[in-house]
Amino acid sequence: MNPLKVIFIDDEINKDNTTRIKEILEEEGIFSCTIISPDQITQVDELICDIFITDFELAKVKMTGISFSGNTLSTEYRNRYPNTPIVLLTEQGVFSSRSKAIRTDNTDLDLIWYKSDVANKPEEFLRQMKGLANGFVALANENNNSRTWNALLHLLNATERELQELRETNSPIQRDRWIIPEIAEWIRHVIIEYPGVLLDSHHAAVHIGMDPDDFSRDMDLMKLFEPAKYTGIFHEFGQRWWRRQFIDIASDLILTQNISKPLLEAFVPAFNKAFVKQTRHAVCIWDDTTIADSICFIENKPVKSRNSVLYRPDNRPAYMEQARVSRQAITHSNNFDEFLVDPDSADIADHWIEMAQEG
Q: What pLDDT digit, counting tens, does each position of 17-39 carry?
């Protein structure tokens, strides 16, 4: 199989971190990367490839013919080649982490990486590049007439059972038809990113009342829930499980151990009994008691619902699990933003802040 073609636009083509990115991409033979200075571009039509990467800052060379920043070049490229993934590279500090997330909401950009992060996390960068390329190729392999819900279920390795949930998540599918950049954005930045249809390891753990560290470390747990694991396109962007299948597996184990308690209370003792383990219940970050049933958005730690409030840090669909922020984060974290608290919970948050200030 021929390597996938990557074009990388950078105004410092001989700089160490630029050539290092090329080395990372090519080290497994999956990609062939060509670095192009913006002053060598005469037409966007010259830039046909499998993944298009551009630096954000392109001002260090004088350009002829056309003039672009990385951002406007991405927009122009998306207009010409909508089925090719676009990656923006930039220096730390150009975007805050929050504005970085906002930028990827724009379907002209499929991924943003800081150059320093590429150097520090080369394996993760390469894994995401492979996942991005493979996902877009799989989507493009469906011809225009076959880009339907049924085709998408196949690409997601989903069942008819998940179809109704997927339909509730503000999908961009119109009249049972989808287009590639929009559906890729929806899969990665809605279905995979927000817990609801799928669960990441932390949210999966609290759904069964278990400590997230114990959940992630235990190989018997991973094997038990393997049938619920998400293996569809873009799975390289984070380990996930289908929520309904995950809960069914947990419930079945509880039944085999004859434990008559709610899921949050029953799964940990059922698993420990069945596999002779000592896994722990999830402990609330605020009061150190069990059993925590949610995850604090800011701290990424388990929290009880009664010790947290609804938080609105993003535009996730209403069907997804809504974010919560813990009393711990509200009173101790500099990342807490009072304007993102759900209006119905604002009085509770204010009261907690007043109590913390009083001492």
A: 788 999 999 999 999 999 988 77
Q: Pairing state of beta strands 241-242 and 198-199?
A: antiparallel
Residue-wise DSSP of 107-131: TT-SEEEEHHHHHH-HHHHHHHHHH
**Amino acid in the structure at residue 317:** P
How many whole angstroms separate alpha carbon 4 and alpha carbon 100?
A: 27
Where a domain ends, among 157, 175, 192? Answer: 192
Q: Residue 324: inside a domain, yes or no?
A: yes
Whole-Å CA distances, 184 to 126, 140, 145, 281, 303: 18, 11, 18, 36, 32
The single residue listed with the structure tokens 């991405």 is 74
Q: Same domain, yes or no, for 11 and 129?
A: yes
Work out the end-to-end distance of the chain between its first and last CA atoms, rounded to an integer number of angstroms: 66
Q: Cα–Cα distances in Å, from 106 out to 79, 88, 99, 111, 156?
A: 13, 12, 11, 10, 22
The model's pLDDT over 274-323, given as tens digits with 9 standing for 90+, comes to 999 999 999 999 999 999 999 999 999 999 999 999 999 999 999 999 99
Phi, psi of 240 (to 5 degrees): -140, 160
Q: What CATH code is carried by the domain that includes residue 133?
A: 3.40.50.2300
Strands 241-242 and 324-326 turn out to be unpaired
Q: What is d(CA 157, CA 240) in angstroms, rounded to the nearest whole number?
A: 13
Place of tokens 């951002």: 71
